Amino acid sequence: MSSNSAPKVGVIMGSKSDWPVMEHAVSMLEHLGVAYETRVVSAHRTPDLLFDYAKSAAERGLQVIVAGAGGAAHLPGMVASQTPLPVLGVPVESKALKGLDSLLSIAQMPGGIAVGTLAIGKAGATNAGLLAAQIVGLQDTAVRNAVEAFRAEQTQKVLDNPDPRPEPEAE
Question: Where is the signal peptide (predicted)?
Fold first, then answer.
């Protein structure tokens, strides 16, 4: 858990090996002050846990689920099939196909089972955390304000550093 407050976002992944990617979603949620929970929920190795997690998510107070998976990447779609909550899928890079297999698996959902699919890897996980915060921010003013402040900081960093050349090294 991120804090003593009830989690609003569930961050799940198919295995512990997905953590180096999914920790970026968690970092973004922490930066924006969004309460979350995180755990391994495998679509293939723990299907009963997956169904229980997804079916109980809304009644437990979650508003969004971020699901990261690699390879066959069934986790986001299977979770989406079991909950009315928005599910954001993060394709985790695989060794064999560099995450393209994961991306296609998550993106190719049949009509009627929606999964928001993000980019492969770190950027996708970071944006999944941000998008989850934006969804929570629809009902939570403090989170919406944190998202707006984050965006303003990004803008100011670009405006403060318009020269793309590296800084000269001090002699």
Answer: none
Is 108 within a domain? yes
CATH of the domain at 130: 3.40.50.1970
With tokens 């922490």, the residue in question is 30
- Helices of type H across the chain: 19-31, 47-56, 75-80, 100-107, 122-136, 141-160
Looking at the domain assignment, is residue 93 inside a domain? yes
Count of domains forming the chain:
1
The verdict on whether residue 144 carries a ligand-binding annotation is: no
**Cβ-Cβ contacts under 8 Å for 49 (sequence gap 6 or more):** 41, 42
Tens-level pLDDT at each residue, the chain (171 residues): 444 689 999 999 999 999 999 999 999 999 999 999 999 999 999 999 999 999 999 999 999 999 999 988 999 999 999 999 999 999 999 888 999 999 999 999 999 999 999 999 999 999 999 999 999 999 999 999 999 999 999 999 999 999 999 888 877
- Residue 120 DSSP class: S
Q: Which pTM was predicted?
A: 0.93
Which domain, by its residues, includes 124?
9-160
The answer as to whether 2 is a domain residue is no
Q: 45 labelled as ligand-binding?
A: yes
